[in-house]
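Work through this protein:
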Amino acid sequence: MTRLDPSPSSPQTANAAGGYRPGYEIAAERILEYIVRERLSPGSRLPTEKDLAEAIQMSRTVVREAVKILSALGRVSVQKGRGIYVAESEGAPWHQSFSRFLPADLRQVEEFFEFRHHMETATARRAAQRAAPSQVKGIREAAGQSMQAAQCGDIEAFSRADEAFHGAIGAAASNMFFGAAVDFMQHLQRQVSAIGLAGVAGGSLVVAAEQHQAIAAAIASGDEEQAEALMAAHIDMTTSQFQRELRRRMFPDHEASS
């Protein structure tokens, strides 16, 4: 069993730039790195909680919390009396291709947003072409819910509305592959938010909600070019905000001195 070199910094830190990473978030990141490093495939058994804590150089209490997070995200499976396992891939066969995704790895997060940009802009265009009136209503309702949550500063409610908004557009594209791809991108987005950026929204919630409403209006009017362009701007803004926040957390000393 490979052990990580002890980190010179505390597993739970606050810094001058305002960056903060709770211990469970770091532990979850290290567990995923351990799975990749040890080449564990879906269904493989992980070490015991005690051995896993030793392998990633963190306390059992923090590891226990990290395992709960990873289990909720569908990355590991905790089987009572048997142990911790790398979760089996579910749904579409290509989901297994993402079983090694590291949501706190800046390069992989950038690749994820690049893929999301191309997929969701195409999905918005198809939705503008094909959305039924009931689907347009659902998209507009989700956009309105995101604005209500944004105005209240409720990150969790906004995240739920955001998922509903993008999911409704995926459904309105009337193509099972677009819909499945959007749903799975939301699954990966939850991992980035929970492990790489716990408790942080990608930027101004109100601005994002305003973009939701503009996209919904373009889809409702059947303006496919406008829907595509607005979705591109929305994903690009989200990308830059997440990249900036992730860099701030990964390299706090650099941000503090810049």
The beta strands are 13-14, 20-21, 76-79, 83-86. Confidence is low (pLDDT under 50) at residues 5-11, 13-18. The longest strand covers residues 76-79. Residues 224-250 form the longest helix (27 residues).
